[in-house]
Amino acid sequence: MGVLDLFVASTIPVIKVLVITALGTFLALDRVDVLGADARKHVNNVVFYVFNPALMVGSLSQTITFQQMVKLWFMPVNVLITFVVGSVLGWMVIQLTRPPKELRGLIIGCTAAGNLGNMFMVMIPAICKEKGSPFGSPEVCQSYGLAYVSVSMALGAVYLWTYVYSIMRASTTVDTAGGEGGDDLEKLPVSIINTTTTGTVENSLEHPLLLPASPTSNHNKLNAAGGEISSFPQKVKQGLTKTLGNVNWKTIFAPSTIGVIIGFAIGLTPPIKNVLVGDEAPLRVIQDSAVLLGQAAIPTLTLLVGANLLRGLKGSSVKKTVIIGVVLARYVALPLVGIVVVKGALRLGFIPANDPLYQFILLLQFTVPPAMNIGIITQLFGAGESECSVIMLWTYALASVSLTLWSTCFMWLVTSS
């Protein structure tokens, strides 16, 4: 595959995203007012509770199998590394730029969470269709590529809506409580109140993912104060009960996470899959409905990014150094780390050497722009929307150049090894 062909295959998917983003910005203009502030909030809720879970279920139930899961065991580790290393890089950006406290969660989210779903959904089939592709015939490449992308998208959704969501929620709650008159729960968005089941804001500050101590645990503390000595097994049991009972499961099991679980359950259970998936499946209408809803997630998310971008174009307090830091973290530092990680895993035998497409996708997971769902999270919390829009503007504008250059490098790496 020549450099020019690679440039076209890598650039066109990004241009498609930018065109739809521009349309979202146009629809959010005051004189058009199709995606105004209220409309964006309602559409965000539809994406969060309907489109994203349907996308997970539809993609995974069709493509995932037990054999592929055994083969792809390293991908969850690879995605986790991207999030951990990205978080460290985000922390370094914060230390160097000293942004306001309410933006720290947003910065870490943008450096940690990459677009592991819709960007790959557009980019991988385009690369497979190009003449001279090193990944075999277009049909085989696209079939395996979509399976890999589905797993990547599912893993990204799980990590995003647990790890990054919690970080950004904690940052938003800190800002709300720290501002003047910010400790009033009535001023928080409904989505935060629903997912944060603590009784007060102060409790959520100390333990963003924990609920208040149960009466049983308080009773145990009184017993301990009274001099009663519990046996070691009782202490272990009490600790597990307290930990599991205090976890905010609503946050961990977000709708997208539930969709991932259902998708894996269908795909990895042949009797259920035969009933729901396939042209001859008796209940295929359920699967077809999920796929139809899921197809709406990608363009809707892209439109919302463009609509939220309007706030950034109207003015934002985000520093230029923050934008530069996020761009360098995502497009310079992370890809270099990715080369070391993937090449090391290949040398240790964790990755099959005869599957360059799998290696290519693992490398790309370190290179893509920030996840679009970060814009959804800022919209849900009602904080950092304009700043997020500006960061998204620059990262996606530079993505065409970055993805083209790194794709060229990765193609050479996976075909020369």
UniProtKB/TrEMBL annotation:
Membrane-spanning intervals of the chain: 6-26, 72-94, 106-127, 147-165, 252-272, 292-310, 322-346, 358-381, 393-414
Key words, A-Z: Auxin signaling pathway, Endoplasmic reticulum, Membrane, Transmembrane, Transmembrane helix, Transport
Principal cellular location given in the protein's record: endoplasmic reticulum
UniProt subcellular location: Endoplasmic reticulum membrane
Keyword Membrane included in the entry's annotation: yes
Presence of keyword Transmembrane helix: yes
Membrane topology: Multi-pass membrane protein
Biological process, per Gene Ontology: auxin-activated signaling pathway; endoplasmic reticulum to cytosol auxin transport
GO cellular component labels: endoplasmic reticulum membrane
Family: Belongs to the auxin efflux carrier (TC 2.A.69.2) family.
Function statement: Involved in cellular auxin homeostasis by regulating auxin metabolism. Regulates intracellular auxin accumulation at the endoplasmic reticulum and thus auxin availability for nuclear auxin signaling.
Name of the molecule in the record: Auxin efflux carrier family protein
Protein species of origin: Linum tenue
Taxonomic placement: Eukaryota, Viridiplantae, Streptophyta, Embryophyta, Tracheophyta
